[in-house]
Amino acid sequence: MNPLAFAPLLLVVLLGLRSLRITQQGNSVLVERLGTFSRTLTPGINVVVPFLEKEVSRQSLKERVLDVPPQPCITKDNVAISVDAVIYWQLVDHFKSYYAVLSMETALVNLVLTQIRSEVGLMDLDQTFSARQAINDRLLQELDAATDPWGIKVTRVELRELLPSPGVTAAMEKQMTAERRKRATILDSEGEQEAAINVARGRAEALVLEKEAESRAVVISAEATAQQQKLLAEARGQAATTLAEVLEKHPTAAEALRLLLAKDWMTMGEQLAQAKAGSVLMVDPQSPASLLAALKDLQQAS
Question: Which intervals hold domain Band (predicted)?
Answer without folding.
Answer: 18-176
